[in-house]
Amino acid sequence: MAGAPRLPYNSGMIWVPLLLVACAVAGVGCARLCRATLTAARPGLGGLPAGTTPELTVGEAAYLAGGPLRVTDLTLVSMHRERRLLLAHTGWATVVDVAHPADGDGVERAVIGAIGPGGQSPIPAVRPAVAAADCVRVLAERLVERGLAVPESGRREIDAGLRTVRAGLLLSLALGTVSALLVPAAERAPVIAGFTLPLVASGLCLLIGRIEVYPYTRWASPAGQRLLAGLSPTDPLTAFATRGPVVLEPELRAALGVGRARK
Fold this sequence. Notes:
It contains ten helices and three strands. It has 263 residues and is mainly alpha-helical. It folds into two domains: 13-44 and 151-217; 58-145 and 232-255, no CATH class. The chain has a three-stranded antiparallel beta sheet with strand order 1-2-3. A hairpin with a 4-residue loop joins strand 1 and strand 2. It starts with 14 loop residues before the first helix and ends in an 8-residue tail after the last helix.
């Protein structure tokens, strides 16, 4: 209406609601990751009797250190060194000795089954098939019951927490950029300062989660981590189970696909 007074529009404060959204999302992501980490750190329902000093088999150590694929790789390397398999640097596994598979453990039988009746198969096709075998699942369930491994639900929650924190970081960056463009250049200093809080919080939480939390709670619980730390690395298979392909000869690393894309 002509002559009616117009309320002043304070464009300098339009970024505040966006900042609140960014802080809320960042806070939810950090809280979710912290809760998932604390849940994974709790001992399992089964647990071990007080005063016992449990021992790990080399296969159990491989699972706690690297999960089902590490168990598969350990079995492949073990059978190769026993001259029951030939792992070629080209990435193929060939059955050499067919007299013993029936006498081996379940993972070894799963390896022979995954290679197939032709006696030869690409290792990238063998690894996921063995990792998904029932024998590996049963091994994992035993470790969870003993309180040494993180259950699958706990791993999913940690993964979801990391995704939420990452989303909060990207959202804070996007909203901060938009907010800085919405205000005059002379008024951008408080905008940048305000969005620094959710950006730093999400960034630090994601960094700590990826470096300190995720590698160690991915498979092993704190009790399992303590057992892994007490294992002697003098045995080559134990060293491989706990440290991974870095301890192998170059030919075996090439056979297992180290340095190439791996599943």
